[in-house]
Amino acid sequence: MDAQTPRTDAAGEEALTVLQRIELKDAKESFPKGDAEIFAVISGVGMGGQPKVTVHQLPFLTAANQPRTPNMDLIHWSDFASRYVNIHLFERDGDLDFNVLARTLVGSVGDLGGLLIPGAPANATDTGGTTAAGTDTPVEKDKGDSDQGTKDANGSVVRDISDAAGKVLSVATGRTAAALSLVSKIGDAVLDSMGTRWLKDDHDYVDSFYTIERGEYYKDRLGAARNAKVTLKPVAIG
């Protein structure tokens, strides 16, 4: 797979997931502060085998118990190599630079090789020698033979950074338990980072939708915290 090639459903078409409908039980904003300011954090595996995070403001979602039908393109699958992504919803209080937030969350997830299930089967997808700067798995030199390369966190020999990224991509692009586990762990790392670095008294957690699958339709899906309900529709454009 070419790291620069967008994921498409057919020639000339780009795959999206559209937010058709959303409703909150609790917008996590106190009355004196006015309207809620909800934003969504999308997390998964990027095209180069690295963590990928995108952030979207949801300015139409200002209060609880008021269904909204924005038909907003929420997930651009050309941003992700993984078949699955997570959606986390937060309510913003105060200033927040979304570009800085996205970069910080990517850094907090760290190397994806360490999140793989040991012995996870590779998907048949050809990674095409994809490289990913900054995503090399934690390694240690093999003391027995310097020609054997290095070992990742699971004990498998990797020849170079391309091999480490390729291993992540081979798992992330599959429809397997290993792929679900990898993306779920990315979501957990994002939530941990938001809780320790960002939220405190400024921004409030609203809800999460783990392992949303590319090309799937979700009607009235409840979040993990059962606070948000969404309808998500796959769309191909082009």
CATH fold label: Immunoglobulin-like
Main sheet attributes: strand count, strand direction, barrel closure: 4 strands, antiparallel
The assigned structural class equals alpha+beta
Oligomer: single chain
Structural account:
- The chain has 238 residues and is of the alpha+beta class.
- It has a single domain, classed as Immunoglobulin-like, CATH 2.60.40.
- 20% of the residues lie in helices and 30% in strands.
- It has three helices and eleven strands; from the N terminus they run E-E-E-E-E-H-E-E-E-H-H-E-E-E.
- The strands form three sheets. It has a four-stranded antiparallel sheet, with no helix packed on it.
- A hairpin with an 8-residue loop joins strand 6 and strand 7 (150-151).
- Helix 1 packs across helix 3.
- The longest helix has 23 residues, at 177-199.
- It is globular and about 50 Å long.
Compact description:
It contains three helices and eleven strands.
How is this fold's topology laid out?
Blueprint: E1 14-24, E2 38-45, E3 51-58, E4 72-76, E5 84-91, H1 98-109, E6 140-141, E7 150-151, E8 157-158, H2 161-172, H3 177-199, E9 204-213, E10 218-222, E11 228-237
Antiparallel strand pairs: 1-4, 1-11, 2-3, 2-5, 5-9, 6-7, 7-8, 10-11
